[in-house]
Amino acid sequence: MDVFGLTLVLPLQAIYAEKLGASPLQATMLVSVFAVCQLVASPLLGSWSDRIGRKSVLIFSQLGAIVGYLAMASASSIWMLYLARVIQGTTAGNLSIAQAYIADNSEAKDRAKSFAIIGIAFGIGFFIGPALTGMLVRYGLAAPIFVAALMSALSLVCTLLLLPGEVSVRSAQSDVALPGGKRLSVFEWRVYLQYFERPVLRAMLIQFLFFAMCFSVFMSGFSLYAERRYVYDGHPFTPREIGYLFAFSGFLGLILQGGMIGRLVKRFGERGLVLSGFVSLVIGFSILAGTDTLAGLVISTSISTYGNAVVRPTLSSLISQSAARHEQGTVIGLTQSLQSVAQIVAPFLAGLLLERHMLWQWGAMAAIASLLGLMMAPLGSQKAVSAAQVVATDAH
């Protein structure tokens, strides 16, 4: 339900901000404000949950989401929208805390299966949420946001009634391999620098950063881009059409992540999939930059959806495999922090281009970020990854 709330708002946030008088840059910077607050607050929430228990902090996070959505739906100015995003970013910890709860209450042999359920929930959410937005916007742009608040409220009720009471948090030793990632505070970034001293891991982390950049450029600016570039039934794209397009992408991603990824990995290997994913992203975003037809948009979306669906899980897997077991939580936390950095920088750049009506350049920026990620691939070859795995095993 938390995922539904997120994906309900995703297709319309920038256009909603425009209706309140925001410029394209101010609209895309809503993503950056959220990411800054999350980058600062997420490690603090994680530390807090270690001390007082996961359930209490999860409740706090869900309350923050409800208040943020209600503030957003009731906003009468862009500054109220910014306040709503600050509230949501500062309390954003639902997923990471839920992951920590799963790690605390499941055996190691069952943990992968438990985390797969979260992945499936995301896939379903990114399919149903935007589709529901497409249907709800006929009642006003605020309608999907109120429904997102309702979803968060239902999630809170489930936490209160169905989740067992506070349990003792495991020793810090179990934290180190937490699949959800052990994020350090912004004041501890020097610890992260040691991982950039390893050539193979550094190449893959930079690759992940470029992937996060292209994805953040797309997600923060696509609604404004589509509104200015595409026409359906005689009128520019609205959150209705954008919601349906996101639902189409979510459906394709759900098919890929629901079973095809595992078969593709067995056949082509993780490194091969990462390469094919980056190639698909370059092609998909290049088509997006150059087309103003609906057919071109659908083709672009299909190709880039494949790229996103295969790059994220396989590259994350390769990164985690290149670290020793006792480092994996921190390394995964590092990728989450790199993603936050991308979500801070990319929306700013996207907003600058869209504000100047540089539409094809916006698409080209996403394609270039993907190309830079592809160019890092030779530095993280499968042979080097295998060597890193041996080193990581020996270190453990």
UniProtKB/TrEMBL annotation:
Protein origin, superkingdom: Bacteria
TM stretches of this protein: 27-45, 57-80, 115-137, 143-163, 200-222, 242-261, 273-299, 359-379
SUPFAM superfamilies: MFS general substrate transporter
Keywords, in A-Z order: Membrane, Transmembrane, Transmembrane helix
CDD domains listed in its UniProt record: MFS_SLC46_TetA_like (cd17330)
Main location: membrane
Keyword flag Transmembrane: yes
Subcellular location: Membrane
Entry annotated with the keyword Phosphoprotein: no
Gene3D superfamilies: MFS general substrate transporter like domains
Pfam entry (one): MFS_1
GO cellular component: membrane
Domain Major facilitator superfamily (MFS) profile: 1-381
GO molecular function, one term: transmembrane transporter activity
UniProt name for this protein: Putative multidrag resistance protein
Organism expressing this protein natively: uncultured bacterium A1Q1_fos_18
